[in-house]
Specification:
Number of helices: 11
CATH architecture of the largest domain: 3-Layer(aba) Sandwich
Order of helices and strands: HEHEHEHEHEHEHEHEEHHEH
Number of strands: 10
Distance between the termini: 57 Å
Shape: globular
CATH topology of the largest domain: D-Maltodextrin-Binding Protein, domain 2
Number of domains: 2
CATH class of the largest domain: Alpha Beta
Radius of gyration: 21 Å
Oligomer: single chain
Structural class: alpha/beta
Length: 325
């Protein structure tokens, strides 16, 4: 009888603690941090800052963005994996941090990109865009491809770094289109864009959001094609790679909020519920104004999406001979 009473008391305590814990999160005076594995000014950073502002306003609490660039996003991801599992340290996870990097360095990682994380909220998808300086006479992706075939190895393209999603989206195109153009990696999206805008490099690729989107709209750089399967509403006149002759091509990045696997379920549930609610309102409009296509998913769907993306990009990395194991 005593054991039955103790069991009942414990169950009741758990039932009360869960909702109480969620209600108390985030605690007053204890800021939440969203880690970003890249330099300020890129697409991941832009999405993180929009999410941080919206969550901070909703919770009445500081939500800070902390940039920890390095190792193709791995520095911030590893830091988050090792942080105290209380919901106060998240990472703006993305196709680079949780698909491409695991595909490239699966044997070197000190964490499990799936089992060491919880996936409370998938925010949505984002295209990469391939572009050239306006001084180039090339106006379409077909013209670029034709020139590249006539002049193998003479054209260069910049990206945010070796093995990041923008880089690999072009490696995939190169293999499908049978062209040879030379990759020039930069230390982040902002540096790559700066050289592309100045004309120091003929072409470049990056996430279609933040400063890059603004530069395209201002005609400071010419967008040739987006990597996603559909055109982006922010640039309706820019065709897709598939429309530009690369049949079957579709690379869509994604952004989400990830945290540690052992964060209490009640806290994870609150992050998911509040994030979903916000993505139904003005936050959706703010993200989509930055060319981020909002398509929220909860923990289970998000986890399965990450697994499938790792499998997909493992093949691309292998074919491009970019494994770092």
């Amino acid at each position: 009888m005593q054991k039955l009473i103790l069991t009942a008391v414990a169950a009741a305590a758990v039932a009360v603690t869960g909702p109480a814990l969620a209600q108390a999160y985030p605690a007053p005076g204890k800021p939440v941090r969203i880690m970003v594995g890249y330099s300020p000014g890129g697409g991941v950073d832009t999405a993180a800052r929009i999410m941080a502002q919206a969550l901070g306003e909703h919770w009445g609490q500081n939500v800070l963005v902390e940039n920890r660039p390095g190792a193709a996003g791995n520095v911030a991801t590893e830091y988050t994996a090792r942080a105290t599992p209380d919901g106060y340290t998240m990472v703006l996870c993305n196709i680079g941090s949780h698909a491409v990097t695991p595909a490239r360095f699966s044997k070197r990682l000190t964490y499990d990109p799936v089992n060491d994380f919880a996936f409370p909220l998938l925010i949505g998808g984002v295209s990469n865009v391939f572009m050239v300086h306006p001084s180039m006479p090339i106006k379409t992706l077909q013209e670029y491809s034709a020139y590249a075939r006539r002049n193998p190895g003479k054209l260069h393209f910049g990206s945010s770094g070796v093995g990041a999603s923008p880089h690999l989206s072009i490696e995939l195109w190169k293999s499908m289109a049978k062209i040879n153009i030379v990759h020039v990696p930069y230390k982040g999206a902002a540096a790559a864009l700066t050289d592309a805008l100045s004309g120091n490099i003929e072409s470049s690729v990056g996430n279609l959001s933040g400063a890059l989107l603004s530069s395209i709209k201002a005609k400071r750089i010419r967008a040739l094609a987006v990597t996603s399967g559909n055109r982006n509403p922010q640039l309706p006149d820019v065709p897709t790679f598939a429309e530009s002759g690369v049949s079957g091509y579709d690379v869509t990045g994604w952004y989400g909020l990830c945290t540690q696997a052992k964060v209490p379920p009640a806290v994870l549930g609150k992050i998911t519920a509040d994030g979903m609610k916000l993505l139904e309102g003005q936050l959706k409009q703010r993200l989509e104004s930055q060319a981020i296509q909002v398509a929220p998913k909860g923990p289970e769907e998000f986890r399965e999406h990450v697994k499938s993306e790792i499998a997909k990009w493992t093949k691309v990395v292998h074919d491009a001979k970019l494994t770092g194991n």
